[in-house]
Write a structure and sequence with these properties.
Layout (H helix, E strand, L loop, with lengths): L3 E5 L3 H13 L4 E5 L7 H9 L4 E2 L4 H5 L6 H8 L4 H10 L4 E3 L4 E4 L4 H14 L3 E3 L4 E7 L2 E6 L3 E4 L1 E4 L11 H4 L5 E6 L2 E4 L12 E9 L5 E8 L3 E3 L1 H9 L1 H6 L3 E7 L6 H14 L15 H10 L13 H13 E6 L1 E3 L6 E5 L17 E3 L13 H22 L9
Parallel strand pairs: 1-2, 1-10, 2-6, 10-20
Antiparallel strand pairs: 3-5, 4-5, 7-8, 8-9, 11-19, 12-15, 12-18, 13-14, 13-16, 14-15, 16-17
Helix pairs in contact: 1-13, 2-6
Length: 417
């Protein structure tokens, strides 16, 4: 009798699991249930519609450092399938990836549809059945495997891969709690900082190549590109900070203070030591016209204004009190954050199925053999830059391998490896 795998979720992890399982074991009947009207929705919007497929990080110990949660778990998983394997997998199917200066990897076409089309071709090639607008309402074990109930139907399957993505509310995991699994409470992981009522928002669109960001009263600190928006701050430095601080910042109800160092190569004391040489070198020039630090012009004028310095005053005539204020604002400017905004459509949570209940070498549940997990439904999340997709490909592939091998073993009961 033909064995069946049902994949719950038509995103990156679920799709990758489905097409690989069907390819690895042609006797396996594979079905994807997707609750919405869209397949691979995050793939479509990621990277501004280009799909940040993975990251050019090839050493496993270094790669695992990009995941605020689940490092030990994914370290084991990456030995089975990692960045090199992702690049090779897509290349073998005619999709070449390119690396950008910051390490992010995209299809050469610069179009996420290239990745989507590749996965859809694989699904068609290996006869993966896709059922849209079919939300799973209940899942329970039964004599012959598992009974899956949707709003339209019931069916029995031998194996289930749960790749339903992250949920914003704990109650949405209740159907998985019924299987006996424990849930790490979900909170948002990638988000931007709202800084209402601050004049910095008038600089929307200004970006700084490298800034230092620190959350006051914590060890949270990041350096990297920073973007000023009409609601506050975004960019890789902010997003990485939000990922590492996901739980701490949630506990503070997203109200906290940050310090920005606009010149992170300088500490306040170092800049103070060098300041006299700047004053002497640019003595006769107006401060508004001469910014010796390479900061964006609008940001420099904003910093002068915050420090009570007129743009037409000469460097030599800068009052010492204002000078001290400017040095402080450059190296440790304080901002009050009040709230967050989801980063584009790339909703990511931390939280999900507890990793102690999953075998990282097979992605199989330790509580319910025959149930597997892939992607963000687990308590694993990466910083921005292609790392969440890499985890999706990795966990999807490992599940596919484990299920295809289990389905080759008879009798069925022996799939509890």
């Amino acid at each position: 009798m033909q064995k069946k795998l049902v994949v719950i979720g038509g995103g990156a992890a679920g799709f990758f699991c489905a097409v690989n399982a069907a390819r690895m074991n042609p006797d396996l009947r594979v079905t994807i249930f997707e609750k919405s009207t869209k397949l691979l929705a995050k793939v479509k919007v990621s990277g501004g519609g280009r799909c940040n497929t993975t990251h050019a990080c090839f050493e496993i110990p270094e790669l695992t450092k990009k995941y605020p949660r689940g490092q030990n778990f994914i370290k084991k998983a990456f030995h089975w399938f990692n960045t090199n394997d992702t690049i090779q997998w897509f290349l073998e199917r005619g999709v070449e990836l390119k690396t950008e200066s910051d390490g992010r990897m995209f299809p050469v076409s610069n179009d996420s549809q290239t990745i989507i089309n590749c996965l859809l071709r694989e699904a068609e090639k290996y006869n993966v059945e896709i059922i849209m607008q079919s939300e799973v309402k209940n899942l329970r074990s039964c004599e012959n495997g598992f009974e899956i109930q949707t709003q339209n139907s019931k069916l029995i399957t031998n194996y289930v891969c749960i790749a339903s993505g992250g949920y914003p509310k704990s109650a949405m995991f209740d159907w998985l709690r019924k299987l006996g699994h424990s849930i790490e409470e979900p909170v948002p992981s990638l988000f931007t900082f709202n800084i209402p009522g601050n004049k910095i928002t008038e600089l929307m669109g200004v970006s700084v190549e490298k800034a230092g960001v620190k959350v006051v009263g914590s060890k949270l600190a990041e350096e990297g590109p920073l973007l000023i928006t009409h609601w506050g701050m975004s960019g890789p430095a902010i997003l990485r900070l939000s990922a590492w601080g996901a739980r701490q910042l949630a506990e503070r109800n997203y109200h906290f203070t940050i310090l920005i160092n606009w010149l992170p190569d300088y500490k306040e004391q170092d800049l103070r030591s060098d300041w006299q040489s700047f004053r002497e070198e640019y003595a006769s020039q107006k401060t508004g016209n001469k910014n010796p630090f390479g900061l964006p012009g609008r940001l420099w004028l904003y910093l002068l204004s915050c420090s009570d310095i007129q743009a037409d005053i000469r460097w030599a005539d800068m009052p010492s009190k204002a000078q001290n204020k400017l040095i402080k604002n450059i190296t440790a400017q304080e901002f009050s954050v009040a709230g967050k905004t989801t980063f584009k459509e790339e909703f990511v949570t931390c939280g999900g199925i507890k990793l102690t209940e999953i075998d990282p070498n097979t992605m199989q549940s330790k509580i319910q053999p025959g149930i597997f997990f892939a992607g963000e439904v687990m308590d694993v999340d990466g910083v921005t830059g292609g790392f969440n997709f890499q985890h999706a490909w990795t966990s999807g592939w490992i599940t596919a391998k484990a299920v295809s091998e289990a389905a080759s073993i008879t009798p069925l009961a022996s799939h509890n490896q």
